[in-house]
Here is the input.
Amino acid sequence: MFNSTFKIIYLIQVVIITIVRSYYTLGTKKDSTKVVLKTKSDTIFLLFEALGMIIPLIYVFSSLLDFADYYIPSWIGWIGAILFGIAILLLWKSHKDLGKNWSVSFSIKNGQKVIKNGIYKHIRHPLYAAHFIWAIAQILMLNNWIAGYSFLIVFLPHYLYRVRIEEKMMIDEFGEEYISYMRTTGRLLPKF
Here is the structure.
């Protein structure tokens, strides 16, 4: 429990990323949605994802998972802390550029347009990119086989499930405009 600088840094960064996400979640109107697709699979994935975020907190606040610790040099932990900072900035920028168009569920809002400015000029799914960077940072900061890898293990299948459905919804709604946008942008990384 708090026996590592990186546990403390990780906790601070989790608080910051939670504040950013909460600010934008509370700022979205739920009554202006045009299309909403709720699936049991997505709900189950979201529950597992929450678990993948809780396990590292159990590791930070207790010694229950210490049996799964392994050694990593501190410079790797610092790289993780920097990556987590990048994930926070990317998450914030993604939300800022999306504005009111963001939603937790699969949805398209009345008057929604394809966002092609800011970070979305280069990447179609920067929020997912931020989550991947967060997952990698967590591995580098928390030297524990369970807590370090928990978020990546639950996020990866959710991403693979969700991104396909989201892109199909966008194509169904925006047609050639979105298909053209897909040609000029990368899914998680900019196209070079």
About this structure: The chain has a mean pLDDT of 88.
